[in-house]
Amino acid sequence: MDDAAFNTESVASDQLKSVIERLERVYEEIDGLKAGAKDILAEAKGNGLDPKIIKKCLAIRKKDHSERMEEEAILDLYLQALGITS
Q1: Which residues are in the GapR-like DNA-binding domain (predicted)?
Q2: Which single residue of 42, 47, 59, 79 could bond 84 by disulfide (Cβ 3.0 to 4.6 Å)?
Q3: Residue 50 CA to chain centroid, in angstroms?
């Protein structure tokens, strides 16, 4: 390999440092948001709601109607094949 490929002068150190620092801040924010979500789910649980079901509701709301309908139809088919539904 060419020595120039590993030349540290070819790396824009200020730009790299800026990118790293920005990513660190974003990851810190993400951690804070995750902690906030955890607190909200704990509050919901304290009010008698089921956090697992709340998470499923969130996942369902992210999907468009046709995608949900297709998944439900396949799920129903599988459940019928397994004799789980009436």
Answers
A1: 12-83
A2: 79
A3: 19
CA distances from 8 to 5, 21, 28, 41, 44 (A): 9, 19, 28, 47, 52
- Mean pLDDT per block of 10 residues along the chain (86 residues) reads 61 91 98 98 98 97 96 95 87
Q: Which domain holds residue 27?
A: 1-49
Joined tokens for residue 72: 């439900």
- Alpha-carbon distance of 68 to 62, in angstroms, equals 9
Q: Residues 5, 45: one domain?
A: yes
How far, in Å, are 42, 45, 75 from residue 82 at the CA level?
35, 32, 11
Single-letter code of the amino acid located at 60:
I
Q: If DSSP codes are grouped into helix, strand and coil, which group holds residue 2?
A: coil
